[in-house]
Design a protein that fits this description.
alpha/beta, Rossmann fold, five-stranded parallel beta sheet, 43% helix, globular
Length: 229
């Protein structure tokens, strides 16, 4: 059974999340502060983490930063703030997605399902479909779930890797932000497209010689992004 760690210090919201997730067939474990979240994540090895930003002891940002160095678990961050900076920081330190409170439980479940499907597909890819993609100095070993740039292994978050693989598989094709959210994040996202922009920017930091003048991951003005080389 899929196990989800919920890190939330609001007891009412925590109980609501646990009830709805269990109703959908998920196994849940809970933590009420950042320090406890680290202990439980390391011990229980959940399949996905729902992580609030405002937590006692350690913030959600710190928890995400530490866990991202230790394990490749999909992380959905929750924030009660509408400040765009909080959302961007969460994505930049390795969160796969974020939602702002209050949120629709239906949308939360849709996002969780998409994130879990993506993670499962990367684990279960049959050997016959495993392959290596090469674009310029980039090499993506899909079978081993690794990417390299000029021989050096790239330290990518799960969503950065998914985005790079999708664009490499569709080399030269232009995709809008909305299309990338649908294809890579796995749901029809009706809202802020900054999620894509942040991931593109951080991918450029890792694969481009000069991120300010990208040669591979380029912007097509008024249309979207493409990978070429």
């Amino acid at each position: 059974m899929t196990k989800i760690l919920i890190v939330e210090d609001d007891r009412n919201l925590l109980d609501t999340l646990k009830y709805n997730l269990r109703k959908e067939g998920y196994n849940t474990v809970a933590a009420f502060d950042g320090a406890e979240a680290l202990d439980i994540a390391r011990r229980e090895k959940p399949d996905l983490i729902i992580l609030d930003i405002m937590l006692p002891k350690l913030s959600g940002f710190e928890v995400c930063r530490i866990l991202r160095k230790e394990m490749a678990i999909p992380i959905l961050m929750l924030t009660a703030k509408t400040d765009e900076v909080d959302k961007i920081v969460g994505l930049e330190i390795g969160a796969d997605d974020y939602m702002t409170k209050p949120f629709s439980m239906r949308e939360l479940l849709a996002r969780l399902g998409a994130m879990l499907r993506r993670a499962e597909l990367s684990k279960l890819q049959p050997a016959s479909e495993q392959k290596t993609l090469k674009i310029g100095g980039l090499k993506i070993d899909i079978g081993r779930h690794q990417a390299f740039n000029r021989g050096s292994r790239l330290d990518l978050t799960p969503k950065e890797y998914d985005l790079l693989v999708f664009l490499a598989t569709n080399k030269g094709l232009v995709f809008s932000r909305e299309q990338l959210l649908d294809k890579v994040w796995g749901y029809d996202y009706a809202g802020d497209t900054r999620t894509v922009d942040v991931h593109i920017r951080w991918l450029r930091q890792k694969i481009e010689s000069d991120p300010a003048k990208p040669e591979h991951l380029v912007t097509v003005r008024g249309a979207g992004y493409k990978l070429e080389g």
